[in-house]
Amino acid sequence: MSNNISPFHFPTLPVDGGIGPAKAPADKGFTETLRSAIDEVEQLHADAERHVANVITGQEQDLHDTIIAVEKADLSFQLMMQVRNKIVNAYQEISRMQF
């Protein structure tokens, strides 16, 4: 009954010095990468809710796994919010530039 903690990865974009938008590995665009990261956060949140509901109803006795699931969901949400903040800050910085 071991829960393996899988790392949360944002793929790195290659820097080739070429003109045009950079592509993520395997031709995944920025939007698709962001969407898959959000889906992963939502899945972790749903898993944590399921664990908590099972503990409350008495269907699950392992409080340790429930706490781990809730913490994984919380940490992934915090990471997602920090990435969002960085994206917003980058957008604001670009909008202040004069061309």
Structure summarized in a few sentences:
This protein is 63% helix and 0% strand.
Topology:
Elements: H1 30-57, H2 63-96
Structure commentary:
The structure is a single chain. With 99 residues, this protein is mainly α. The chain has one domain (27-96). It starts with 29 loop residues before the first helix and ends with a helix. Helix 1 (30-57) runs antiparallel to helix 2. It has two helices and no strands. It has helices spanning 30-57, 63-96. The radius of gyration is 18 Å and the shape is elongated.
Q: Helix coverage percent of residues?
A: 55-70%
Topology order in helix (H) and strand (E) letters: HH
Indicate the radius of gyration in whole angstroms: 18 Å
How would you state the average pLDDT, rounded?
A: 82
Query: What distance separates the N and C termini?
Result: 58 Å
Count of DSSP E strands? Answer: 0
Poorly predicted runs are none
> Approximately what portion of the residues adopt beta-strand conformation?
under 5%
What shape does the CA trace take?
elongated
SS summary, helix count: 2
The biggest sheet amounts to: none
Give the count of structural domains: 1
Structural class: mainly alpha
List key phrases describing it.
99 residues
